[in-house]
Design a protein that fits this description.
1 helix, four-stranded antiparallel beta sheet
Length: about 70
């Protein structure tokens, strides 16, 4: 995994992948995370995750509980 693709943001709508992207800077990925949460906050069954692919850890999810 190269640094340009370290942070992965994924948007799930109704249990299906809807959008995703990779960023090399955590701050940029977190901004994209916040943007997608704002865009889908009124849609039932939506979920957004931010993962550090290099470490294999989920940094944050929305909503907090599945």
């Amino acid at each position: 995994m190269d640094d340009l693709h370290r942070y992965h943001v994924a948007l799930i709508l109704n249990s299906a992948p809807a959008r995703h992207g990779w960023w090399g800077v955590e701050g940029v990925a977190r901004e994209k995370f916040r943007l997608w949460v704002g865009e889908c906050s009124g849609q039932a069954g939506s979920r957004v995750t931010l993962t550090d692919e290099q470490r294999g850890t989920v940094l944050t999810t929305w909503p907090d509980t599945p």
